[in-house]
Amino acid sequence: MPRLLQKKGITEVLSMYKQTVAYFPGTADTPIIQTITREDLVDLLNNATTNDAVSGPSADLLHYMREYNWCITAGVHEGGLGGAAGGADPEPHISLSVNGYGYHLRVVKKNKLWVLWDITGPAEGTPGGIRLSKGKQAAAARNAPPVVTTIDEFQQEFALTEKEALRAVCHWKKAGGTRPQAVAWLKAQK
């Protein structure tokens, strides 16, 4: 499967870049793991159009980015401040704004390169909406819950609220140790 955009399309997408939302520089609790240029981000999405698992949402996002102003709002990071779509995302991701709508491009490092494995954002059929990844489509077809995140696991395993689970996961990823140790740390904070 060829990449969606050729040189002209890439140039058109890059021409729509406009920093309309402040860039999150990171904090001590939520450091930026790696900054990403607009060219690298477009390349990441364009390469993902050849990956069946995320080709649909990647193509949707590139089409929006070709038509509307867009900007990177944070480089690769875990956690963050949360936003309109919910709490902070514990998965490594890049934050992106297209026409005022927020998206998380979830990435994993493979062979020293960031690879896109999921995109979260407005649901298909709503303004700014994108198709689900193949994994989320399969889960929806089975009436199964979508991919369970580490936060979900902490909530279920330790009977925590979403906010408590988020704090425990962030501490666990930062400090290391075991999951029960992270929950003990959380309870000691009360």
Spatial strand arrangement across the major sheet: 1-2-3-4
Alpha-carbon Rg, integer: 17 Å
Strand residue percentage: 15-25%
Q: Supply the number of structural domains.
A: 2
Order of helices and strands: HHHEEEEHHHH
Largest sheet: 4 strands, antiparallel
User: How many helices?
Assistant: 7
Global geometry? globular
Describe this structure in words.
With 190 residues, the chain is of the alpha+beta class. It is 39% helix and 20% strand. The chain folds into two domains: 7-141, no CATH class; 150-188. The chain has helices at 7-15, 38-48, 55-67, 134-141, 150-158, 162-175, 179-188, and strands at 70-79, 89-98, 101-110, 113-120. A four-stranded antiparallel beta sheet has the order 1-2-3-4. Helix 5 crosses helix 6. It is globular and about 55 Å long.
Overview features:
190 residues, alpha+beta, 2 domains, 4-stranded antiparallel beta sheet, 7 helices, 4 strands, globular
Topology:
Elements: H1 7-15, H2 38-48, H3 55-67, E1 70-79, E2 89-98, E3 101-110, E4 113-120, H4 134-141, H5 150-158, H6 162-175, H7 179-188
Antiparallel strand pairs: 1-2, 2-3, 3-4
Helix pairs in contact: 1-3, 2-3, 5-6, 6-7
Q: Briefly, what is this?
A:
It is built from seven helices and four strands, in the order H-H-H-E-E-E-E-H-H-H-H.
